[in-house]
Amino acid sequence: MATISFTNSLNYTRAFTETELISILTNLNGSSNYFANGLNELVYIRIASGSLLLVDLNSHINRQLFEIYSFHFSVTNQFNLKLVHNDNALELNINDALLSVGYSGTIPISTLESVFMKMYTNSNQAYLLSHDIVKHTGNFGVEPAELKSLVAGSGIVLSNDANNLTITANITSLSNVYTQTEVDNLLNTKQDLIALLNDNTKIQLLNNSNVLKSISAGNNIVLTNDATSDQFLEISADLSSYYTQTEVSNLLNTKQDVIALLNDNTKVQLLNNSNVLKSLSAGNNMVLTNDVANNQFVELAVDLSSYYTQTEVSNLLSAINQAVSAPSVTGISLLNSDGKIRTIDTELPLMTTLNETIDPNGSVTESRITFKMQQQTSFSFGNSLFDSVTGTMRLAIAPTANDTPTVDNTKMSITPNGDVGVGTTTPQSKLHVVGDVRVDGSITGAFNSNVSAPSATGTSLLSSDGKLRTLDTQLPLLMTVNETTDNGIVTESNLTLKINTSDLGPTWTTFTSVSNYDIVLSGQPLEEFRVHLEKDTDVSYAKLLLHAIKDNGTPDVMSYNQWRFSEIPWGFNGVTDSFSMNMPYICDKSQPDVIDPVDLTISVSRGSQRNHITCQANWRNISTTGLIRTWASGYFDTTNLHLLRIVFENSAAFSGQIMKVI
Residue 139 pairs with which residues in a beta bridge? Predict the structure, then answer.
């Protein structure tokens, strides 16, 4: 008998025999839809006749699915699973149902095992046995059996009636099959051909086995097959590498004429003493170009790339005349009466400079003469400039002594409203400096009063000499600087100190002697808390309550009557001791038992319409010293859930610790 393995979310693997699973199926078919094994938090759900789904309830997601939905068989859905909502009968496939309870893994899932589920199907309930013509054996109450389709190949005809399927061979439809008459005719023709090819008066083309010999081409022989009609084999001589008698005679006659021409004493002799052509080499300003494509000639040309043509020289002279011979009304022509360019002289304080632009080849591409005033007395090259449009007065300083200052050389500006700018032409305050500022002495006013007067327990940001102190931090304290800039100017700067909580991790918070304790919720999709409770004084009767409090401070009425409640003795083979619906508490024992201490794991999952809260409590029955585990869940309005309140029904004072895990 084969075995089936199942691994749960705690990485525990259990092997089942088919006998065990068939037995569970048989019992479920006669009683109910599922069976819960509390020992391993495993539930067995009958999906259909012969199909059993194993679900691990140690998984928080699976437990929510089991509480909210019922599981059914579907032929069309993935893994043949359909989940029906217990409240509104909404039908979902497994992927949509997982998303509805906050599953964060990859959707769609590839296997049921990836979410700690497994489907078992009893293979002994098949309609048909496996066979070459059986496509699906089927399963009782699950899926029908199916036979393979019959397809007729070449030369086969299928016919069907009410009782029989007939398979007939249609030989006449096959083009590559000969009839007996056609074969006889072919054999008779072959005998006549053999007698012809073995005629001793001709070359025998058949070997001793009456098979045609192979024909191969010898030197300068070409064999060409009649590929079009397949009627003949052409044998011809390849004379492409030979000259005809006429071609040889013409070549000899031409050679004699060429030799006589090249040796003509009245011209340059191109042949040397051995009647071989001399080599050609290019001299100054000569270019030799070989006819590489046809190999018919060598081209000789003069290189005139560094010379101007007569037209180009005329154009240059005309352009010069137009540029220099037409002075302005008050100007003087740069050309004298004979057309030559005049020499330009200056007298102090006027001076000239020549600026030329030369390309990589050494040619002058631009030439410019600049006239300017020279300062003869002192090294003074600053100036005050007034902007008549904006009304701004600027102090400009030229970069060198010989340059005239412009607006671009502005060092300081004063606007009509009295704003002074240093390093900027558009000051935004009474003193606007772009660059570093140094102050030798004290700064008085609002700034000094803000930073130099610490509180009674604080420390001044200024040292005794008026300078800002440097701030240092040590982990887990972090310091960040946030600045706002406008056109490169810092308009706002904030220094933030905070605790680096990522280095600390989750921590326990302690509370003592309280009658109730509120857990404030952050509104995140998933939150989880660990709580340890101990009563300050033992009492003989106790109920531990968990109330869902709205944002207006009142408890949600559903927190009193809609907890699904189960109580399981710890380690008692997973058998449920009690199971109740709509209980107002999560831990309860009658007199004289006492609950002390209690460890809670509380999870809050927020959906689109409702909040789902689960609480697992591990507590000790003092009278029996036995460990008890209680599990409860409930649904609450998602629009105004604010906090969870822990109280004991008899208002007994208690102390404890709490830690937020998620």
Answer: 143
The segment with the largest mean pLDDT, out of 104-108, 203-207, 319-323, is 104-108
Helix (H, G, I), strand (E, B) or coil at 283: coil
Q: Is the pLDDT of residue 377 over 60?
A: no
Q: How far apart are CA 49 and CA 122, in angstroms?
A: 9
Residue 631, beta-bridge partner list: 566, 616
Which of 52-61, 244-253, 498-507, 594-603 comes out lowest in average pLDDT? 498-507
Within 273-360, where are the H helices?
Answer: 310-324
Of the chain, the end-to-end C-alpha distance in Å amounts to 45
Q: What is the pLDDT of residue 471?
A: 77
CB 655 within 8 A of CB 511: yes
Quickly tell me which residue has 């304080």 as its tokens.
Answer: 349
Structure tokens given for 439: 């102050």
Q: How far is residue 332's CA from residue 347's CA, in Å, rounded to a whole number?
A: 17
What value does the mean pLDDT take over residues 605-615? 73
Q: Name residue 457's amino acid.
A: T
Taking alpha carbons only, the member of 310, 341, 311 closest to residue 323 is: 341
Distance CA 291, CA 280 (A): 14
Q: How far apart are CA 199 and CA 214, in angstroms?
A: 18
Of all residues in the chain, the percent with pLDDT exceeding 70 is 71
The answer to whether 595 and 619 have CB atoms below 8 angstroms apart is yes
pLDDT for position 61: 95
Asked whether residue 118 carries a pLDDT value surpassing 90, the answer given is yes
Angstrom distance (rounded) from CA 523 to CA 58: 25
Token pair, residue 391, equals: 């009304």
Q: How many helices and strands in the chain, by DSSP H and E? A: 8, 38
Residues 172, 175, 181, 183, CA torsion sign:
negative
At residue 67, the pLDDT reads 93
The candidate with the shortest Cα–Cα distance to 583, out of 541, 543, 640, is: 543
Q: In whole angstroms, what separates CA 407 from the centre of its chain?
A: 52
At which residue do the structure tokens 């092997």 appear? Answer: 15
Q: What is the pLDDT of residues 538-554, one digit of tens each?
A: 655 566 777 777 776 66
By three-state DSSP, how is residue 171 classified? helix
Instruction: Give the SS3 label for residue 135.
Output: strand
- Residue where the block lists tokens 């086969």: 156
Q: How far apart are CA 569 and CA 575, in angstroms?
A: 8
**The length of the chain, given as a count of residues:** 662
Measured CA to CA in angstroms, residue 401 lies from 15, 97, 372, 380, 381 at distances of 98, 84, 12, 7, 5
pLDDT mean over 176-186: 78
Written as six digits, the tokens of 363 are 């040619």
Measured between alpha carbons, how far is 607 from 588 in angstroms, rounded to an integer?
29
Q: Which two tokens stand for residue 75?
A: 């032929």
227-242: pLDDT as tens digits: 777 777 788 888 787 7
Handedness of CA 151, 154, 156, 162 (dihedral sign): positive
Mean pLDDT over 281-302 rounds to 80
